Amino acid sequence: MQQAEDFRAESRALAAILQDLPEAEFHRETQFKGWTIDHVLGHLHLFNAAAEASLQGAEAFDAFMAPVQRDMQAGRSILACQFPWLNGLSGRALFDGWLAGAERCADAFAAADPKARLRWIGPDMSALSAITARQMETWAHGQEVFDLLAQERQEQDRIRNIVHLGVVTYGWSFRNRALEAPEPAPFVQLTAPSGVVWEWNAPQSAVCVKGRAVEFAQVVTQVRSIDDTSLQVSGAAAESWMRIAQCFAGPPETPPAKGARFRTDPADQ
Question: How far is CA 247 from CA 17, 37, 132, 268, in A?
């Protein structure tokens, strides 16, 4: 699957800015809920391993996730649930483990049937959707690391996978909040990093979202406020969507407030 290679490339892009990071820097807090770079890598490492386990069958996945789900059911945060599995892995050693695990995960999905149904924490999903979700989460959580280190990510057209996920979860963003999704879905027209124009849904000028694909991805993954982008949003349905857009599973999350997530000024490093 090309999506497996896109996930690999996303992981390597994040690894490139961490490769020479001093040990102490892994414990700096990002703008995401006070998570450190260490926390981000631990989260990605755990769920990459979970995705790999899902390829081995429902029984293997359930066995892998059982301790994590017990902790979640006991009320522990998603962050705290990773610590028992990590067993003290941290800093440079965690970086090495995460990167090696991401490569294994990419290898496993590259050889998988894209249509294979896989067990997951929520509804089952296809292998194609599963590895796309891994790319999305790596890109989204990677953003807070790029922001903290005052680095501008060199975006590539593989971001289309994430944008597509954002578009097709239009209805989910509303249902997840017990709201009815307005129909028809907005027309989406976005410019890729390469300059190519991508479009989704039936063309209409009254209800639409237009602009840069990267900014759209930032909004649907909730790493930027819609108010901190130059996206052009027209129509009540599109405006409502962009205020609550959430392309990832789990309970409703509140998008960041205006100015809450941004790239750090290099002068402050």
Answer: 26, 22, 11, 32
Overall pTM > 0.90: yes
Structural domains counted in the chain: 2
For the stretch 102-161, pLDDT in tens is 999 999 999 999 999 999 988 899 999 999 999 999 999 999 999 999 999 999 999 999
For residues 235 and 178, membership in a common domain is answered with: yes
List the strands of the sheet with 187-191, edge to edge. Answer: 197-200, 187-191, 208-212, 232-234
Place of tokens 């962050």: 79
| 134: number of Cβ within 10 Å | 27
Question: How many helices (H) and strands (E) would you count in the chain?
Answer: 10, 6
Residues 110, 239, single domain; the answer is no
**Domain span holding position 144:** 2-154
CB 109 within 8 A of CB 2: no
